[in-house]
Amino acid sequence: MADLTGPGGADRRADWWRDAVVYQIYPRSFADGNGDGTGDLAGIRRRLEHLAALGVDALWCTPWYPSPQADGGYDVADHRGVDPLFGTLAQAEELIAEALRRGLRTLVDIVPNHVSRDHPWFRAALAAPPGSPERALFHFRPGRGPHGDLPPNDWRSEFGGPAWTRVPGPDGAPGEWYLHLFAPEQPDLNWADPRVRAEYEAVLRFWFDRGVAGVRIDSATLLTKDPALPDVGAGDGPVPHPYADRDDLHDVYRSWRRVADSYPGGRVLVGEMWLPDAARLARYLRPDELHTAFTFDFLQSPWDAERLRGCVDATLASHAEVGAPATWVLSNHDVTRTVTRYGRADTSFDFTADRHGTPSDLELGTRRARAACLLTLALPGSVYLYQGEELGLPEAEDLPPDRLRDPMRIRSGGAHAGRDGCRVPLPWSGTAPPFGFGPAGGDEPWLPQPPAWASLTVEAQHGMPDSMLALYRTAVRLRRTALDAAARKPGGAPAFGWLPSPDGVLAFPWGDGLVCVVNLSPRPAPLPAAHTLLLASGPVHNGELPPDSAAWLRPGGPAGSAD
Ligand code: TEU
């Protein structure tokens, strides 16, 4: 087992996760080691230097398991392996160990709500008759209507269409239906069955045994279902909801926490939980449940001081009740890239409102994304960065339709643009696609990269002090230094609280006595006097912070002195 606590290993603190910066890797699009146009583990390993130079504490890889790839690997056929597309299990073990030698912990993605249609359990269920123990691992039901040709209830798939698909019975005639809250290739597991619980605890152990420092739990609020499978009806559905955020789910995570706590070095459970109610979310973060959960309200909030202030307040208050740190995130592989979102007239994110193709002022969006970087990295708690965010990549909105893969798009019949635009392979070097994504002479990347990304490659931004990459590298390092210095002080970091500021301006103390100021107003904001400017997202003149900018200051010395 990899040693997470010994000499030469990563940071020794068992509570490292409380203020970690975690970098999200979407393996298919990070770096291609073998030249087949798809990113892989060899590519990640080769590019670990990028993460070390960024100064992050850990990396999280989205699913690398064997999978038919109907949903970018979130259709898992075997949770204990690696898809040949990405490499081998031995390579995963080597990657985890190599990352650790560089001080980086690794998190893997666990997908408990559903498996692939190719999972041996589901294949066995299809081959077995209705009422069999094999089918009891899933949700099989007869259809409604005289011929059973209507779905068992009104649940809708997250990707559009009914959440049910009918399969042939043993005689070949149409038989039972099975539940899939996502694509038909992703049948939902029945979490009321003890075999499912035992299997996932074994999967957790499998990866913890390989030195993994934590797991990101996919679709973490959806696992348990009302056994009666009642209709959801109109609106938000009945309370309690038949499948979202049900009370019996807490017991599942309590048993996962016992597994995590049985390992040394602080193994962490991170929930992907889209819950609008901060108090409901915090219930999952009680001391014997998950360690952290993403604050998606932050990622969905428009670029608006009062909305962001409200989000921070609600998050910190609800988390304080259970003693859990907040988890801030601006983007991931499911949502519009920040630079594009912040450049639009409506800067919020909403799955149900597809804003793909609406005009975006990318210069404005980039300015705001830079400011948001300093805001996010100064807030108390941990931060997740999504690959390419540190390069300021925009959403790729003009991908050729025949190259798109996302089931969200395909199943909506094109009504929803889908999520491919934030999953385009990273640009590393050179002046034209494939921008060093794979070895010279390799296959074209699985999605084409916009030629305009020539100025956004890692190589082009390296050593450019005004680049997005330079801002992220400096900010992540300064943050680490500031938090470590705060931890050494007798009282620790100052309590969070807003400092007096003009309308549209957010200001708060953080770290070892630093101050973060973010100007979301349309006017320049005067920086507090008698401060030294440590870092700013844009030019500061005469002690004034321009609109859509942020700054980190240290008390003492005149503001703007590092101008
Ligand atoms: O996403 C789960 C999820 O609930 C949302 O992204 C969802 O699509 C949204 O709320 C729509 O209403 C996770 C993964 O991050 C995503 O990539 C997968 O497609 C999905 O689970 C299925 O595994």
Query: What is the share of helical residues?
Result: 25-40%
- Stretches where pLDDT falls below 50 for ≥5 residues? 5-11
Largest sheet: 8 strands, parallel
What is the CATH class designation of the domain at 1-113 and 195-293?
Alpha Beta
The CATH homologous superfamily of the domain at 1-113 and 195-293 is called Glycosidases
Kindly state the mean pLDDT as a whole number?
95
Let me know the number of strands.
Answer: 17
Reconstruct the topology from this structure.
Layout: E1 21-25, H1 27-30, H2 41-46, H3 48-54, E2 58-61, H4 89-101, E3 105-110, H5 120-127, E4 140-141, E5 164-168, E6 174-179, H6 194-209, E7 214-217, H7 249-261, E8 268-271, H8 278-283, E9 292-293, H9 296-300, H10 305-322, E10 327-329, H11 338-341, H12 362-378, E11 382-386, H13 407-411, H14 458-461, H15 468-488, E12 505-510, E13 514-519, E14 525-526, E15 531-536, E16 544-545, E17 549-555
Helix pairs in contact: 6-7, 12-15
The structure holds 1-O-alpha-D-glucopyranosyl-D-fructose (TEU).
